[in-house]
Specification:
It is built from 8 helices and 7 strands. By secondary structure, the chain is of the alpha/beta class. The longest helix is centred in the last third of the chain and has 20 residues. Strands 1, 2, 3, 4, 5, 6 and 7 form a 7-stranded mixed β-sheet that branches. α1 packs antiparallel against α4 and α4 crosses α5. The termini are far apart.
Length: 217
Amino acid sequence: MQEDEYLQLSGIQHFVFCRRQWALIHLEQQWAENLRTTEGALLHRNAHDDQQRTCRGDLLTVRAMRVHSARLGLSGECDVVEFRRSPDGVPLAGENGLWTPYPVEYKRGRVKPTSCDEAQLCAQALCLEEMLCCTIPSGALFYGQPRRRQEVTFTPELRTLVENAAKEMHQMFRRGHTPKSRPTKGCSACSMKDLCLPRLAKASSVADYLKGALKEP
């Protein structure tokens, strides 16, 4: 794909979590903040606060690294990419030796029951693989509440999930289509719920919805 057709890589996380959420944000350009999104923004800001590129021995750390994939039609930014010196690695501009990339994505809260975070991390790895002509077997998600990493293996199934999601995102973007709401347990914690109005999907009619809303304190 051409660069002007690229979609935001971070949208993979929204899309796998909820296609309607992705469409509201990336098609309709709507956004709403809540405590979770604010905490997440602060966590990412702290991750990028240090020097952008540091090297200690056999570990090179690059923060806020821009990545892209012409095959997937995605572009974005990795929170952190750790490069470990390795004879099986790839050459890097301005560095001696060979290095193996290891993407690390920062998330607030805890591990989610869906694979949306893993999909975003895998999308970053696929971009890095295309840019550096290498294979990346795994990366890590750092969650803010337990304050520890969870390693993610980029299995064929996870790679296929990302590839299919990217393809569907482009199809939906070209159509300008926002899917209908499909309420789940995750709706109550979503910052977009007041814009999405998931409860309308459960109402048998507008009159029933308004009647229920008027009864609320």
